[in-house]
Amino acid sequence: MNVLSASTHPAQSRANSSTTVPDGAEPAWKAPRGAGRSRLRGVAFACWCLAIGTAAAHAQTPFAEAGAVTPAPTTVAAQGADAVAAKPASGIESTLHEVEIRSSAWSLEQSALASPVQVLEGEALEARRSATLGETLASEPGVQSTHFGAGASRPVIRGMDGPRVQVLSGGSAVQDASNVSPDHAVMADSMLAEQIEVLRGPSALLYGGAVGGVVNVLDSKIPTAVPENGVQGSAQARYSSADRGKTGAFALTGGQGPLVVHVEGMGRNAQEYRVGRGWDGGSRVGGSFSKGETGSVGLSWVGSEGYLGLAYTRQEARYGLPGHEHVDCHAHGDHLHCHDDHDHDHDHGDGADIPTVDMRSNRWDLRGAWRNPVAGIAAVRLTASQTRYGHEELDEGEVATKFRNRAHDLRLEVEHQPIPGLAGLSGVFGVQSAQRRFSTEGEEATVQPTDTRSWGMFWLERYQVGDWTLQGALRHDRQRIRALETGEEREHSGSSASLGTVWRFQPGWQASLSYTHASRMPTAEELFSDGVHLATNAYERGNSQLGRENSRAWDLGLRKTAGDTTWGVSLYRHQVDGYIYGRTLDVHDGFQLLEYSQADARFTGLEAELRHRFNATWALRLWGDAMRAERADGTRLPRIPPARLGAQLHASWQDWKGNVEWVQAARQSRVAPLESPTPGYGLLHAGISYTLRTPQGQPLELFVQGRNLTNRLAYAHTSFIKDAAPLMGRNITLGVKMDF
Question: Do residues 199 and 225 make contact, with C-beta atoms less than 8 angstroms apart?
């Protein structure tokens, strides 16, 4: 079953509106540290001014495209573009709004996939853009956020996070350290995204190891088509009240064919944020400031049969780590040995000398597609990336811990034409390889330097006959991890498979069923950790004898896709054999000794969404999710999201749009040992926007968004530091956005 699209209305034109090929990697330009930061801001501002000036200059003088042909979608071109439903001009649809799932191997519309898929784009994405990827997706059914203050937040899908949820940028892995610890930021910026997809089942199987799911952040960093008028782009600026945050972003694509250039940038500066009324810690979360900058440049050669592009991205971030405490504990066998010396045990909760993260990432991406190279082959696609990532955690101005990640990956996909005699059968097969060298040094050096190498092969097929669509996927992975200090080496391999079907039993109605058997191999941190990890308030000890996880997942869905009322409901159950988790061996004043262990676990839940169009002006959206997760012996798993219900009323009249939304989260009392319950909360959100036209005819949108308007004190049960960093209180965002 496919969860309904997150967008209430048709998608707005994106930075590559003429592009029908999914773009790929993350590009950028380089700025050195220190003095380079001011240079980064200066270049970003200059490019922004250049973008606006160039657009105005060419608004009345369209470029000729020198014979450029708009390419078909990079991922299985033939089916995706024609499958997208027509979008009425009124903005309120009488049928379910379908969008193309561009990271799917078949590039299909949502309703053609057997497993749940969510898409955030257009107006819905603009309304929910936040400083972190996790917070941007936190209101999607089945998706919540780890919430580690304002600087770090990763998606939690159906109660699973960390390495069980892969985060991609344009289909390529984001090689950061966010899956190592919840206090590490995801290096995929939602402010520059044009579409965000959440995949499960056969589509997620394409990427391997993602037993929870895949989040793919799509952008325009590598152009895949020539702009219709030779140049196009967008610019926006925002101010938020709760954190006194200022954000600016721009994107510009230009070229007359065959060469196309894309430049984009983003800057953010937010202070400590204000929480809801009644918090014992004060009005603001100490150390919850967040600053960040991103710059990108990409160049593509675009032809009638494909494209080839290269891009560079430079990202910098600096943010505080609320909730960190200094402890003097070490493991002695299966027990903690701690010194109660208060000269060493000091809490940073008052905001003084809060530890901070100083992060940077340099990444190169290569992406290309060649359609119809030989008879029988519909397309060949290549993706490669190389990342140099690092961050320091600073305590009282001194470097306490250094993290380094050097990684590269390569992926080749081949899509075949329908097989003669089986006209409805299409598919894709491919290989990928990756290497990751990760190291830590200093106080929180919890794991020795490691080298991880992985290889994978995959094959996906789709067969359509009558009212039935059948989908299947196979994947095999091998992994070798070597501890560089001790020389210990561990090898794992695993195979995964998925089968699914969609039955359109009558017009506007469909049922779906999918089964996925997926393997996840342990990470270097789970195998070789040995040290204090302040983000989780624990001494973590790895287990080099861990084996792979094996997950068996069922998804059953029913969906109504036409008429003034559309809805969908999905039931799922995940049985995980050898689930890897941190088993508590000892506790001292809330500080735990954890050892990575394995036990069978099960996840059961429901996701639902309903939309109703009253008339051309008013529409209603209702949604909800609920789940349980426990080990086979009945013990609850930690940080499992509570049940939620949401209701949103949307209005659209001429150039005005507005919405009011209420989100109710239940109390989470089904907790793991040593975990405290979390009270429920209700949040009121609202927004209004007005679109006018500049003298040159470009749309200029002015908007106001309000979050948590009742200033409710709320805690995220999925957070390691829920009590030290509650959710943001009342926040008013003022913004302006222009497309040209």
Answer: no
